[in-house]
Each structure stands twice: as C-alpha cells, then as structure tokens.
C-alpha cells in the first residue's frame, strides 16, 4: 500500500536513507562522505509537512515502510526567457528496501508520484540519477523515463 509519509515513519525512512548514502559513497567516494543520511529525524519530519513537498511511503501488511519517494513541486521560470515557464514534480529521492525490490514497490511509488504530478498540473516529473547507480538507471528506463539532458564532468586531479 502507498500512503503519505507520517512522522512515525521517520526512523524507518532514515534507515533507507542510510542505504542510499552508502550506495552513493561506494559509487562516488570522492563526493559522498559515507552512510550518514542527508537529513536527521527532525529535518525529515519537517519535510513531511512542507506544502511544496510530497513524500509517499510503501508499507507492508504490518505497516512497515519498505520504500519511499520524496518529491518537490517546482515552478520553472527562465529569467532569460529562453524556455517556457512550467511546473514540475522533482523526485528528490526514491529508495526501496533491498528485500522488497523487484516486487513492484518502486513502480507503485513512481505511479503515485506521477498521479500527484498530474493532480498538481505539472508538465512532467523529473529526477537526477548518478551514473554509478546503474540499477536505478535501468529501473527508471524500464518504467518509461528518458534522458532530458546529461551533466558531464572532468575531475581536475592533474591529468587534464
């Protein structure tokens, strides 16, 4: 079942945030510190109540969180007038517990995010995914997402 996140869900969501932090650290230790989540419990609970954020959790039959999606409503208005203004629902974070993967949880969470984006009158739903997170890239492609743009880098470690 997918439902809006509640304060009681914060400890479990923090556990899943630690999984994501560890994954990012393993893939890009030059950028990510380690397994500390990007929010503490107080900050996470505050996010649950923000007007421009939508956070949904997937729960099992015992109401235990096995995944979440965090979304932020954004108004895009180009100050240089090279792009049309539009509204988007940005997926800031998605995580499914390892034990619940490949069971439709991620798809159900993204379906709920798309439903919310439509209800909010958004043009699209978008997200960023790190190139080192190949499983996530495959998942997003499998549900029909496509590249909008690519960020590229050169690490300035003396080899350039």
Automatic annotation (TrEMBL):
Keywords noted in UniProt: Acyltransferase, Transferase
Domain N-acetyltransferase: 1-160
Entries under Pfam families matching the protein: Acetyltransf_1
UniProt KW tRNA processing keyword: no
Gene Ontology molecular function: any one: acyltransferase activity, transferring groups other than amino-acyl groups
InterPro entries: Acyl_CoA_acyltransferase (IPR016181), Bact_Acetyltransf (IPR050832), GNAT_dom (IPR000182)
Superkingdom of this protein's organism: Bacteria
Keyword Transferase recorded: yes
PANTHER family linked to this entry: ACETYLTRANSFERASE, AMINOALKYLPHOSPHONATE N-ACETYLTRANSFERASE-RELATED-RELATED
Protein's name according to its UniProt entry: GNAT family N-acetyltransferase
């Amino acid at each position: 079942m997918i439902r809006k996140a509640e304060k009681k869900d914060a400890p479990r969501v923090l556990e899943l945030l630690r999984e994501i932090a560890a994954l990012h650290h393993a893939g890009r230790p030059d950028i990510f510190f380690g397994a500390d989540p990007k929010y503490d419990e107080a900050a996470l609970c505050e996010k649950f109540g923000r007007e421009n954020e939508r956070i949904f959790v997937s729960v099992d039959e015992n109401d235990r969180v096995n995944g979440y999606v965090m979304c932020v409503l954004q108004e895009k208005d180009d100050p240089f007038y090279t792009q049309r203004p539009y509204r988007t629902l940005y997926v800031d974070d998605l995580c499914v517990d390892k034990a619940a993967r490949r069971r439709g949880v991620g798809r159900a969470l993204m379906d709920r995010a798309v439903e919310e984006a439509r209800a909010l009158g958004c043009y699209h739903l978008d997200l960023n995914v790190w190139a080192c997170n190949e499983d996530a890239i495959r998942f997003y492609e499998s549900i029909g997402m496509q590249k909008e743009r690519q960020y590229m880098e050169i690490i300035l470690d003396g080899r350039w």
